[in-house]
Design a protein that fits this description.
Blueprint: E1 4-9, H1 13-21, H2 29-45, E2 50-55, E3 83-87, H3 98-104, E4 109-115, H4 117-130, E5 134-143, H5 152-166, E6 169-171
Parallel strand pairs: 1-2, 1-4, 2-3, 4-5, 5-6
């Protein structure tokens, strides 16, 4: 049994559409999607579960559950055998079925990807560590938008450094290996 799962956090269409609304674009969005596609392929070949986390928005009608912008980006849509878990907080474990799902599949290692670096990726990575999971944070498998004070590239580099110091092993997508 494979004890490693791929987490794809909040790679939902709405965040990619912000560039058309307010000019904010996901940093290196095409490369991000390609890297996540590569990781999904690697996970499936190794018979590792692929778990998509979808944030349920309650304060933004266009991204509420069931709305088109709430859906996972079409380039990486979940397939029938993938697991989809809804969440309501930055922490994908908080008030969701994630921990129970991982335990029921015998998962102890997580390969973490998704959006946004400083919010849901960071919070989920830290919580997973606190719960005893061994994390691999894919250095080029998560991204974010520019903030008012930092460019997205700086935010990503900072979080890779901080999370890599204690909460996760840092590995680029090309070097990720799924095994038990």
């Amino acid at each position: 049994m494979n004890t490693t799962a791929l987490l794809v956090i909040d790679v939902q269409l709405g965040i990619f559409m912000r560039k058309h609304h307010d000019g904010l674009a996901i940093y290196r969005e095409e490369a991000l999607l390609e890297n996540i596609k590569t990781l999904i392929d690697k996970a499936k070949k190794a018979h590792s579960p692929v778990i998509f986390i979808q944030h349920v928005y309650t304060d933004f009608p266009l991204m509420e559950k069931g709305q088109p912008l709430w859906e996972v980006h079409p380039d990486i849509m979940p397939e029938q055998d993938d697991i989809v878990i809804e969440k309501y907080h930055a922490d994908a474990f908080c008030e969701s079925s994630l921990d129970d799902t991982l335990k029921s599949h015998g998962i102890v290692n997580l390969v973490i990807t998704g959006l946004q670096t400083a919010y849901c990726v960071d919070t989920t990575c830290r919580r997973a560590h606190s719960l005893g999971y061994k994390n691999i944070l894919v250095t080029d498998g998560h991204s974010t938008l520019d903030s008012d004070i930092l460019k997205a590239e700086q935010i990503i580099a900072h979080h890779n450094s901080v999370l890599g110091s204690q909460f996760a092993e840092l590995v680029p997508a090309f070097d990720v290996v799924f095994n038990s």
